[in-house]
Design a protein that fits this description.
By secondary structure, the chain is mainly alpha-helical. The chain is 57% helix and 6% strand. Helix 9 (171-185) crosses helix 10 (199-216). It starts with a helix and ends with a helix. The structure holds adenosine-5'-tetraphosphate (AQP). Residues 44-45, 53-54, 57-58, 194-195, 197-198, 235-237, 246-250 line the site of adenosine-5'-tetraphosphate.
Length: 380
């Protein structure tokens, strides 16, 4: 299986190189080559096993976009290690997470023959473009990012006096949205499937695309297209323990999230203890009943129905009966990916081949972007 895959992967890399060169040389000649397909880019941090929020809010959409893509669409998915190190990581754990994340992406259905899948840190174009963008990004804009404000709020709540000072927070936490813009624009991506928490960062990417075009591109041509955020209906899956905040990898309470690798009994226990309320019956009311609304969103995403439809269908169920329906649906959803993940994580040679080929194919696109960017800026 490994050798057969390797041959297909190599053939694919060659085809991508030929097609990309043809497309890019038209642009280099000054013709704005007609962009026929979408360029889809997205990333995920290797900071642990993805949870149900990552899956329903982003990853399942990656697979959907891949499976519905036309022949002209390009799909590029990255494991963004440089983002992960904005917070302290243990080297061995980060390294293991990088490979586990790749196994996870393949296990949920990302096909390396159809999509480019690679480690961000295998392609230095991202950091080079990020530096150029850093030099045109107003610091005030970064300080207004809600993610930065949340870090500041966290540090104010910290006990240690040294952490209260903003100057003690690392610069990467302030500037990573610029790196994110570079991740996307290095491929001149047009569509970015993400959860709702990323909308503000996407807006920055759009602004930087416009700013770069206005500042550096002769005739102010649209060299960088402003990328569009592609948000799923389950754009914000909430914590099972605190349905006023999002489900998150970094929450200290492991009962608050369902992991893609959780066993059926772990899924049962987490959903059984999910915080709801004492109202009788099932209704969809995100303001007054956020816990039940969250479970309706989850079940809706599993079954392809809207939360309101399901609320009508299960109006007379008790909370316990309803939780048991959600449990069955989530167990079914993760059964296949979990088995495939367990198989793939032991196929290290195959994973390395996929990552190497993915990085090579990614570089074909981004190196051409950077070649032109250097010319626009005067770095040649
Ligand atoms: N709760 C969520 N609901 C919907 N979408 C979500 N995403 C994350 N949490 C939810 C989406 O998952 C994609 C990858 O996220 P990431 O790994 O880059 O990390 P993150 O956005 O910082 O969220 P995490 O996984 O919960 O980590 P922490 O704890 O660090 O915040 C993104 O498209 C994101 O929108």
């Amino acid at each position: 299986m490994f050798l057969a895959t390797k041959r297909v992967v190599q053939c694919n890399a060659l085809c991508v190189r030929q097609l990309t060169r043809r497309y890019l040389s038209a642009e280099a000649a000054g013709n704005e080559a007609p962009r026929r397909g979408k360029i889809v880019f997205s990333g995920i941090q290797p900071t642990g096993v993805p949870h149900l929020g990552n899956y329903l809010g982003a990853l399942s959409n990656w697979v959907k976009l891949q499976n519905e893509a036309s022949a002209e669409d390009q799909l590029i998915f990255s494991i963004v290690g440089w983002h992960a190190i904005t917070l302290p990581q243990k080297a061995k754990e980060l390294s293991a997470s990088r490979w586990d994340m790749l196994a996870t992406l393949l296990a949920i259905g990302i096909d390396p023959k159809r999509s480019i899948v690679f480690h961000q840190d295998d392609n230095r174009c991202h950091t080079e473009l990020a530096w150029i963008f850093n030099c045109i990004t107003p610091v005030g804009k970064l300080r207004r990012m809600t993610t930065w404000k949340a870090r500041l709020a966290d540090s104010r709540n910290a006990n240690s006096a040294s952490e209260i000072d903003e100057s003690m927070l690392n610069a990467g936490l302030l500037t990573y949205p610029v790196l994110q813009a570079a991740d996307i624009l290095a491929y001149r991506a047009t569509h970015v499937p993400v959860g709702e928490d990323q909308v503000q960062h996407l807006e920055l990417s759009r602004e930087l695309a416009h700013l770069f075009n206005r500042t550096f591109v002769p005739g102010k041509k649209r060299f960088f297209p402003p990328p569009i955020a592609d948000i799923t209906p389950s754009k914000r899956v909430l914590s099972l323990r605190d349905p006023t905040s999002k489900m998150s990898k970094s929450s200290p309470d492991i009962q608050s999230r369902i992991l893609l690798t959780d066993s059926p009994s772990q899924i049962t226990s987490k959903l059984r203890s999910a915080v709801t309320d004492s109202t009788i019956g099932i209704t969809y009311d995100p303001i007054n009943r956020p816990g039940i609304a969250n479970l309706l969103t989850i079940l809706g995403a599993c079954l392809g129905k809207t939360p309101s439809e399901l609320a009508e269908e299960y109006a007379n169920k008790s909370n316990a009966e309803f939780k048991s329906l959600v449990t069955d649906a989530v167990q079914d959803l993760f059964r296949g990916p979990r088995t495939e993940f367990e198989r793939l994580r032991n196929e290290r040679a195959y994973l390395e081949e996929v990552a190497k080929d993915g990085a090579e194919r990614a570089r074909v696109h981004s190196e051409e972007t950077l070649r032109q960017v250097r010319q626009f800026v005067g770095l040649y």
